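Entry 14. Ran structure prediction on the chain below.
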Amino acid sequence: MAINQLEAKAYRLATLSSISFAPEHSTTVPKDISSYKIDDIRQSENAWLLFNHDIVIKILRPYQDARYNLLTLHERHLCLVEGLRWNRIFSKDIHIGLAQIYHWNLERRQIGLGKILVNPRLKDLKPDAEYVLVMRKLPKECRLDILLRQGSSISHSFHAHVLSQYLAKLHAHLENATARNDAIMWGSPEQLRKKLVYNLDMVDNPEKVKQEVLQDEHFRHLQSLSNLLKGLLLPLFDQSEFADYFEQRMVEGHIKRCHGDLKARNIWILPSEYGEEKHLQEGVNVLDAIDFNPIFCNIDTLSDAALLAVDLQVRTLSPQLANYMIEDYLVQIEQTDKVSRFVLQYYLVEKAFIGAIVSILYDDLPELGESYLQAVLRNLADLRKLISFRLI
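Output, structure tokens:
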């Protein structure tokens, strides 16, 4: 029988409160710990988010699947330290620091944290203690998915323009991705083929997925489309012309350490008292940069932008808005050539496919997954046109 919302919320609270956050070998608790009242709790498979009036506290869960590896304290510590460093690149004055968690009181809905470490290194964290990421709370009404839901076509286009300007400036200043130890270069045809096989395998051999999900029609649709992509996308890397396109992007230095999860729910556009476009760009804050797997963030800047474009397609059911943002972005970065357009179109297909996988298999959002599948088909049709044009 389905668990109703109240029961689900109680279960999440019970699960969280049952975990011991005190260091295993600690005999004393500092007197200067700070207690925070928690107004709301949200849970995903890999993290809890605790919402206070002023701050948000992120607790990584002991979890592992094909995407995450957070089972041990050391792995969670490493993820938190790296995540803090990288997230500060994409947002200003939002991520306060890391703090040790000492207690959680279910009845009073309070959490006790130690001193916040503003610029921690891995060696600064106690190896037997759980830590959290502390962030400043941003106004919900300024989150992009809310702006899209409540806005008009005019405001949608304006926000898309602000984002294209922001991304162009951001990508220009990101670090180049460093070479992998196994000699497969990030963004190379070999690495991209391997990544595609990895994503296809998530459908062929799903991990930690409920049996009812695998028996649902949405999963069958996903399987059907996955088989289609095997026959259409994998052969691209065996054709020298198309493989050379990806090689060219790599040689030209477009493979960088990107955000990796540019979605409307991770983006805030804060208002400016000046009302000017350049000040609105300064108010853009992008949270939740990928910090758990380099395969998802050491990517082509076009791949980074493609995820946001697909998210706009799915949320607004308007390919026109996504196309507008993409065209504006390509003009800003001066990459309107055939190679960039082909590579971008490939990434639009890939990102829509990944969105379908995550929504259907992991997030229990089959309807959203269907919207992603429709986005795959739309973008795949455009990619096939580019392929046919080059082969004539």
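Residues 366-391 form the longest helix (26 residues). Will compare against last week's run tomorrow.
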